[in-house]
Design a protein that fits this description.
This protein is mainly beta. The strands form ten sheets. It has a six-stranded mixed beta sheet with strand order 12-23-20-22-21-24. A five-stranded mixed beta sheet has the order 4-10-9-6-7, with no helix packed on it. Strand 15 and strand 16 form a beta hairpin. It is globular. The protein starts with a strand and ends with a strand. The relative contact order is 0.12.
Length: 554
Amino acid sequence: MPFQIIASTQSQRLRFGTRILLKALALSFSCLALLFTSLASAQVTVTAIPTFSPAAGTYSSAQTVTISTTTPSATIYYTTNETTPTTNSTVYSGAITVSASAMVEAIAVANGLSNSALGSATYTIGSVIATSCSLMSLGNGASLNGFVPFPSTNVWNTNIASALVDPNSSTIVVAPGFAGWYLHPDFGSSLGDGGIPYVVVDSTTTPAVSINVIDNASQSDVVVAPFPITAPIEGNPADCSGWPDTYNGDAHVLVLDRAKCELYETYNTNRCNLHWDASSETIWDMRNYESRPFGWTSADAAGLAVFPGLVRYDEIASGTIKHALRFTLEQTKNDAHSGYFVSPATHAAGNNWATNNVTGMRIRLKSSFDISGFSPVNQIILTAMQQYGLILADNGGNFYFQGASDPRFDNNDLANLEQIASSNFEVVQATPEFPGFDSATAPAGAAPTINSFTASASSVGTGNPVTLTYSASGDSYDYIDMIGPVSGGSVTIAPTETNTYTLYSTNAYGRSESTPITVAVPGSVVAAPTFTPVAGTYSSAERVNKFETGCVRV
């Protein structure tokens, strides 16, 4: 049968046999199939967005999370530290365990296709009380707007109203050093009334600065911190009055960074000529609660964070306090190894062999104590003492409990709490049992292992990005001295001068330190070090401190 083919702009009528005609038709359909395949391929230009299983949500325990994409042979890069993943981020190679609240973010990359859109899933583990650090306001004594540091399962935030009474409670509460004392609010309406102040900052606008840690550097997190030069110091000492290392009161500085959800705390802090020094420095991830080594101190003698135990007026205004309070006693139990401690404390500063007061012990106001005759403000405080209790955190005034002073507090009203005797309290069952651990008997184990610490480039132009990637096992938390706390396995920076970086990984048994990495910035000028006190003639020997500033934008 005749078949007409248009071969060009001219038409020709050709006759073919049946066999040749079928071959031509097959070739025609093959071309059509190729055409349709090309059209279909042209429509797929972007790698499919990653998806997560299980779905984002709130879970009571750790979750094993898988990430996938429907694009064949795509590579997935992910982060868990609320930074946007890039091709320098961790490569997904198998299911990951999310054991603490975190946002998992991922992109997928495939050859010949555009990178996928960002996929993310937020997993809340342990039902944290508030959803995000970003809720916090900025400034001195700012409101946290409902955010409570650390998960609700953390010891600070655990309701112990029904917890067992310690078998030794009846002995402890009638012994000297505990018996015969009365509550004393160690805060009020102004800084002159005591209190431990704090400031909330945003590290995207508040630059990190060096803290010169002097006395307890080996047990500190010596790391740059977003300390505004106007940060309030406990006791409000005059600048340079204790410089460089004179004890001038506990002089705590507490800085909360809402951008990274980190808490920075220093002890015996001095500020002089725009520089900071302190006897100790500790960082805390407010989304989790890292384990610090047994036997190590912190900005508090008990090795604990200071901030979560404070009474704050923004909580009073909300109508409830959802955490334990911090308190002190003059005497804590000592031994040949600096004293005893019980959970949650990791350190003691014992000063009396005979006392039964053990650092870290938790007491609570008896449920039978009638609080109805107190003001609404005081009832909120006393309810917290009945439901969450008080944790012995340091040596200090007997039955002093701490807060952040605020002009909205009424000192005359707070003074009514001073009629409550220590006999109205009981000791909650301790772990381990009385008298607890000391630095010689505390649990022992292996410090973290740092598997790798590398830079994507050893030399970059000023302000250009470089990614530091690390892997550690057995770690509770990590930081890079010239950058700050890190998580998720990598961090990207944009250095403007040559700097050397060291990774530190810590757990309940010790700390490991990486081999330092130097990233050169050719042509950069390293700022000259400065010295305090300034050059001059002095009548006696002077201790000189040298400060070197690194310029790093994270």
